[in-house]
Amino acid sequence: MVASLVEAQHLVILSTAPGLIDMKGTKQILPVVERITPEIEAMAGGTTDETATGGMISKITAAKLATKGGCGVFIASGSEPNILSRLFAGRGPGTFFVPSGLPMESKKRWLAFFQRPAGTITINERAVPVLRDQGRSLLAVGVTGSSGEFAAGDIVNIAGPEGTVFARGKSTFSSEEIPAIAEQQSAAVAALYPSRKRLEVVHRNDLVLL
Questions:
Q1: pTM for the complete prediction?
Q2: Closest to 74 in 3D by CA, of 99, 97, 41, 51
């Protein structure tokens, strides 16, 4: 989180682990991970080393967070001599996780990782590609319900109809208002909330994909 917050170019995690090992395949250290997939996460089994903290699972979680913020991540053994200079020279034993895309702007990084969601807004299947693929705001017409208690301005998760959370953002409505939004047509909701411009439940500038 610190590396993401300060927009660091690299994060180095040194421990007893020499890197991410392909336990189901070559049994060798993976030198580069271009994208953290479910298969990569499955390789991160719990460590049996008494001196390790959190095991490889927590390291992969940290790498996933940092790479989404545009930060490259090294995982290597702290017992290797001159390990930092070797890593940055491309000669060190360990695993490098490639940052995904361009760094997110600070506001969206804050939304994604530094605020605990107060609840979840569920949307219909038509609204999912609108947010995920078109980068648009979440409008009232796409909302089907919510869970948890939150006020207008709180950070909430956004889940598709099957319950999978894929985005996070700042809600312009409270959890008490969501049922009225989910149950009525846009025109009726607009009459109830005439001051809410275009009935944006989450504006695109306050929304980030996870």
A1: 0.60
A2: 97
Distant-in-sequence, close-in-space partners of 82: CB < 8 Å, separation ≥ 6: none
Q: What percent of the chain has pLDDT over 70?
A: 84
Select from 126, 43, 109 the least CA-distant residue to 71: 109
CATH number at residue 21: 3.40.1160.10
Sheet holding 207-209, edge to edge: 143-148, 119-123, 155-159, 165-170, 207-209
Structural domain of 83: 2-102
For 146-161, b where at least 16 C-beta lie within 10 A, e where not — what string? Answer: beeebeeebbbbbbbe
Nearest to 75 by CA among 48, 99, 93, 50: 93
Q: How far apart are CA 193 and CA 176, in angstroms?
A: 13
Does residue 200 share a domain with residue 153? Answer: yes
The domain total for the chain is: 2
Q: Do both 129 and 49 map to the same domain? A: no
Give the CATH number, domain containing residue 205: 2.30.130.10
Same domain membership, residue 118 and residue 96: no
Residues 85, 90: Cα–Cα separation, whole Å: 9
40-76 tens-digit pLDDT: 888 876 444 444 445 888 899 899 889 988 889 999 9
